[in-house]
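Bit of a strange request maybe. I'm writing a small parser for structure token strings and I need a real example to test against, not something I typed by hand. Could someone generate the tokens for this chain?
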Amino acid sequence: MMVDYIAAMIRRSARSRKVEYQVEECSPENQARNECIDVKVTKQVLHRGGDIVYGFAHQHSGGIGASLHGQDGRLLCASFLTYGTGEEAGNEANYIVGMSTCYPKPGSVKISDGEVLTIVSNYSSDRQHTGVMGLFYILVAEHEHPAPKPTLCFSFPTPWCLPTWLTSNL
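Reply from user aminoacidic:
Good idea to test on real output. This should exercise your parser:
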């Protein structure tokens, strides 16, 4: 079984290849309605399918979480941030101290060859954030492919093999 690794990122536009982007502060009207969430969406093609065995997002301060969806809209993985609440190392108040991960049961989250995946990244826009990221990393175990049936081959006086249709009933 081979495991492939992919990373997909949110981009400011289809032509831009920047890894970082900026979240603008929401309007006073949206602040009054408590609707200050910046949502970015991108799509990535996974050329070779398989089973997701691990996944997580990468976001910066202001991040709320990210999700990965299959072509049919099903949720493949959701990853959320944990912010610190104290003063001690590893729990610094208002700093990201953790990110949840996905470890699906083997064989339970399948992706087809050529499937278009959607990555959704959510940030708080209650204030401006610069240099943010919306990355999603997954490890995919390739689907097992059956081994080809062996054929009957000879090497004397010159190498030759019987056609598969002749040897399929042996």
